[in-house]
Amino acid sequence: MAKIDRRTVLEPWQDPQAIPYVEIKDLSKSYGGYVAVSSQSIEIYKGELFSLLGPSGCGKSTLLRMLAGFEDPSEGHIYIDGVNITHMPPYERPVNMMFQSYALFPHMSVEQNVAFGLKQEGLPKDEIRDKVSSMLHRVRLNKHASRKPHQLSGGQKQRVALARCLVKKPKLVLLDEPLGALDRKLREQTQFELVNIQEDLGVTFIMVTHDQEEAMTMSTRIGVMEEGRIRQIGPPTEIYEYPNSRYVADFVGDMNMFEGIVSEVDSGYVLVQSEESGCDIYISHVSDVPLGASVAVAIRPEKILLETQEPKKVGQKKRNYAKGVVEEIAYLGDVYVYHVLLESGKKVRVSLSNQVRLSERPVNWEDVVYLSWHSDSGIVLTG
């Protein structure tokens, strides 16, 4: 019998020997006295789909425009595949950018739009025809090659714009809110199509978005931005399950946060006294926090159990347990969202999977309910 290799393969960003493909070093951009991007350093590896996620005005688009060469950095450097491109003009960079508007030429066919950049480079007609045909097959638009942009759906236009970016085989593709113009259902479908194309070609993508779901679905890693700074970089699961600050916890997904004081610290747990929750919160994983520190305990709505009967397992210590009254119920199809007012006056959001019909729902408005959560559900935040 062949021996099974159970070794874990490191991701490039976990491997100290891996060489970054895109390096952003101490990059800053100021407009007069306003700092749009403040001395940021990021390492991105070949084949990644890296997302910059943040609200409007946080600096993510400015950072993307500096990568494209449309903005000149105030300080710092940019390297792609070991080459310093910081002050290289846009047309000389091995970079293509796909805009939210797609910027297709309305008078040109799909085929002509995709071929435009190759013609500008003066390639032979036969070579252009072969490259365009191959790319249209990859994005499943070969049957629409003769159509004009106004004859295409939003998803098809998006794929034309992507094909035009990719046909020149750039080392880096920049996506500025690439799916923002699509409706929700089409956007969800196109997310997977875009990821499949990117993985198939092995091209490195950097995407700017304010849509958390989009970033979580598509990215190998996410950089969460606030006011010109990267607050946390990590894979989607790490960003969601282990946010490193109140800002990231609150910005990515829904989160309940209970303020409190660290009353016990041990090698295997942390205990937080919280008047907001009305109980002591027991966290069964190690957090580097000192005794007596003011912290917030963050708990996702889907990690809270809601019951109409007081759970017997709570015991006398009343840890990870709260009592409240249902104020609001939102029916979202796949989940119910309950807004519960605790005895302390704190409002808590609880989401439960919709496993029963509406008429069978056991919890109603004004019901007294009991909330509890596992010891590994809470995250201690100090920043």
Strands in their spatial order, largest beta sheet: 6-7-8-3-9-10
CATH topology description of the largest domain? Rossmann fold
Q: Helix- and strand-based class?
A: alpha+beta
What does the largest sheet look like?
Answer: 6 strands, mixed
Please state the average pLDDT score. 89
Number of helices: 8
CATH class value of the largest domain: Alpha Beta
CATH architecture of the largest domain: 3-Layer(aba) Sandwich
**pLDDT < 50 runs, ≥5 residues:** none
* Fourth-tier CATH superfamily name of the largest domain: P-loop containing nucleotide triphosphate hydrolases
Short descriptors:
alpha+beta; Rossmann fold; OB fold (Dihydrolipoamide Acetyltransferase, E2P); five-stranded antiparallel β-sheet
Describe the structure.
The protein is an alpha+beta fold and 383 residues long. The chain folds into 2 domains: 235 residues, Rossmann fold, CATH 3.40.50; 120 residues, OB fold (Dihydrolipoamide Acetyltransferase, E2P). Helix content is 22%, strand content 33%. The chain has 8 helices and 20 strands. The protein has a 6-stranded mixed β-sheet with strand order 6-7-8-3-9-10, sandwiched between helices. The relative contact order is 0.11.
